[in-house]
Amino acid sequence: MNIHEYQAKDILKSYGVRIQEGIVVDTPALAVEAARELTARTGTGWHVIKAQIHAGGRGKGGGVKLAKNLDDVRQKSEEILGMQLITHQTGPEGKKVNKVLIAEDVYYPGPSEVKEYYVSILLDRGKACNVIMASTEGGMDIEEVAEHSPEKIIKEWIDPRVGLQQFQARKVAFALGLSGDAFKEMVKFINALYKAYVETDSSMFEINPVLKTSDNKILAVDAKVNLDDNALYRHADFIPLRDVTEEDPLEVEASANDLNYVKLDGNVGCMVNGAGLAMATMDIIKLSGGEPANFLDVGGGANAKTVEAGFRIILKDPNVKAILINIFGGIVRCDRVATGVVEAYKAIGDIPVPIIVRLQGTNAAEGAKIIDESGLKVYSAVLLKDAATKVEEVLAAM
User: Which amino acid positions bind Mg(2+), per UniProt (predicted)?
Assistant: First the structure.
């Protein structure tokens, strides 16, 4: 589950991670009030107005602006709030900005040079342990650094049996070229960050940039946090952090119906039970000359209700020209799935695209008979080859 920058920073701060202080608002008038409060609290004279959307690259898209006085705060908040912010992560449609973070200016002059770093923590599945990634090239897209200067990316793997060791935090700080107070601050920062990552059951922390201020403090200027959905039962206080306005409406609807759905760009909708079967089904669609329009897993208990919900979600995509249902009847019998498909079809009414239903497993023959005798625009298949052939025929007839 992705969360906003301001929410991520609140979590980090609760674990002792130093952050760029800020106040989130949704109107220009409240932005000015927030700026006044920040000035009183931190002494900052300038403020940074930061769009709050679930995407990176906000600065390049015009979603981060520096305000040098209160009039600036109001004007730049007005410019950002309500805009359709387009970045390399939003796609061409962009995302509407409903909130902005009014943040303190931390790039103030002082006795030493201001420097930006990159620090992230995530799971390395290949090595089955967490890894800390860091770089002196903060503020840049890490993908660009990896492509053009891979030697500037530092990696430190953490043994899950013992956790982060002090020498490892010091090793990362040394590798970043820090010394003195800045070195000590970075060691504290990494320790606190790793503790927050583990105890919140997150799947990724990305702090870019991590800033060394002119007086050698280390703090998070930005924060991208991805919480593990599967661990939310241990963190009830994180559930309200979900912002469904930032998610695809069809994925939100699918989640409400206990379906796993991801929208793709193709023309053949697919509905399956099981992630592995879903991947195989998408391969079938491509081999038959089509492109998968979605990934939709109805789980092990496919019935009329879940099939109907799946139909409604798939049919909201105007690019869908056919639907392939691929069910393995292990937990659930194929005749029950077939009955569910027929009931769902009748409940929705006239479905404008052909449906191919491939059933295999318990009572597959009985299920195929129910489909064939339904009188509906639904075609049955038992073998994968049969399903692929029918998809190919449907696409050729379009």
Answer: 208, 222
